[in-house]
Amino acid sequence: RWPASRRAAPAGRPMATGTTIYRASVQLADSDRGVYTELRATLARHPSETAERLVTRLLAYALFYEPGLVFTKGIGDGDQPDLWVLDADNRVSLWLEVGLPDVARITKACRHATRVLLFLSGQRRRVWEGQHLATLADAPNLSIWTVEQALIQKLTEYLERSVNWSVTVSGGVVYLAVGNHS
User: For every one of its 182 residues, what pLDDT tens digit does the chain have, with 9 covering 90 and above?
Assistant: First the structure.
């Protein structure tokens, strides 16, 4: 019997590619919230995750950072959001989801988490909004933010395994620098 690493993939199906690890350093200066810190994170990119989604997760981490906010298994575990904050009793005080998630999943999160933050992004964002925003309108603990796909695509162009960003938030405007690009 072959060891797992030497087994051939079933006919017609390629073997799965492994997870890719990214190391991120973000200089965050958010004068609107009084948050000034250097964020360091290790992100695992699941083989089925796009570069756009990875960049969106990192941007959400920077924009909504608060003590205790961590990346979860996310796409690798359907029961967890992309990021969360757990309280002292291990209850979810912040559930942060990126992309265009299933509405039933967000509704369930609103019942169980203290706060739910949805950071909408994706090619079909406007279609998703038209179909689902009315359903979510009555959730008192839900905040919905959007990001333009053009920004995500531009950030993806500069994506490297070692990510270095400078994020400044002032007066509701986000300034982001990646190397010599802003």
Answer: 334 433 344 444 444 468 899 999 999 999 999 999 999 999 999 888 899 999 999 999 999 999 999 999 766 566 889 999 999 999 999 999 999 999 999 999 999 999 999 999 999 999 999 999 999 999 999 999 999 999 999 999 999 999 999 999 999 999 999 988 99
Please name the residue that has the structure tokens 């070692």.
162
Strand locations in 46-172 (E): 70-71, 83-86, 92-99, 115-120, 142-146, 162-170
Q: What angle do CA 56, 153, 76 make, to 5 degrees?
A: 35
| CA–CA separation, 35 and 30 (whole Å) | 5
Q: What's the whole-model pTM score?
A: 0.86
